[in-house]
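Re: that chain you flagged

S.,

Sorry for the slow reply, it's been a week of failed gels. I finally had a moment to sit down with the sequence you sent. For the record, here it is as I used it:
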Amino acid sequence: MSRRVVRQSKFRHVFGQPVKADQMYEDIRVSKVTCDSSFCAVNPKFVAIIVEAGGGGAFIVLPLAKTGRVDKNHPLVTGHTAPVLDIDWCPHNDNVIASASEDTTVMVWQIPDYVPVRNITEPVVTLEGHSKRVSIISWHPTARNVLLSAGCDNLVILWNVGTGEMLLVLEDMHTDLIYNVGWNRNGSLLVTTCKDKKVRVIDPRKRQIVAKNFEEPIALQEMDTSNGVLLPFYDSDSSIVYLCGKGDSSIRYFEITDEAPYVHYLNTYSSKEPQRGMGFMPKRGLDVSKCEIARFFKLHERKCEPIVMTVPRKSDLFQDDLYPDTPGPEPALEADEWLSGKDAEPILISLRDGYVPVKNRELKVVKKNILDNKPPPGPRRRQSTCDLEFSQTALEEVLEEIRALKEMVQAQEKRISDLENKLCQFTNGTD
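Prediction finished late last night. Pasting the structure tokens below so you have them in one place:
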């Protein structure tokens, strides 16, 4: 009688568990817009969720620790004139998030470490180049300030957020609506799925499709008869892919290996309520002391529920095999280096002592000055040295005054926020 050999894997017993009720985020009006994006983005500092908003588009940003019932007057990020369709945190700055909207624009926002007292309405930069709604955005994994956007105009545009300019426009590559876009590990290639039922691997800098017609898959996994959109999340450190179905109530996960049959079913996390969207925490935001290998943020109609995936271990020591060095927050390249053809692997960090998020780093946007362009040939008035000195001095004075006013406003906002927190503590103490 033959005996079936069980495949050895340290992830065979990964199990999911929801957090306690007081660690959820309650009373959030999750967006009802019909879109295939995940509606949620998380990093080691914040959770951001696209919400319902009258007269435009908005999303809410909450510090991770601010769990429980969310105040109905909690400030929102509002600036789009139509619904927000996708959001994505910058991998190299935990205080910077990008949003894409039906209003055809992409906006990049600076989120302060303290809770602001009013809605955030002014983006750091607005990126305009699409002619139809923008439903996909994705930051470059290794190059600073490089952001990808894809819209219903079948265009993929790459931006330098630091200058607010287009780097590349990939047109005439997709014959129909683009469903999704993803980068490879070092950002040298990207892959797209399209309504024309083709998967394309693209070298963006050469503006070339390097692979398109995949005749036979190396593995085919039949899921179920549900017609909901699958949201895939891949953890390259553990080689596990998690599949979350929109409108479904389960998370299926598989281990990927280099040898046939390549895809190995591990388990399914099931719950009673369907998910409206899902956020996926980067590895540096996990609790390594509890052998946590993944954390999802499941969106319901009115709340966000964190789900923790752990590998049971008896030892309290750091588990090296579960946590290889992982991509950290430092970029490996500048935008210009990447555009010129240079590639670099992510800069890795160890999670042995846990990860502590760095303090607020401001995104500086330096737009190219149109005055730097040479004027057209022809007669022009001679400008005196006096004129130049006066205009330069006046400009510097105005800029200095603007900077001082900005600092004053930020200081007052922080003071108001601190006073409100003290008042809240006082009222709680007297209850």
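What I noticed first: The longest helix spans residues 385-430.

Talk soon,
D.
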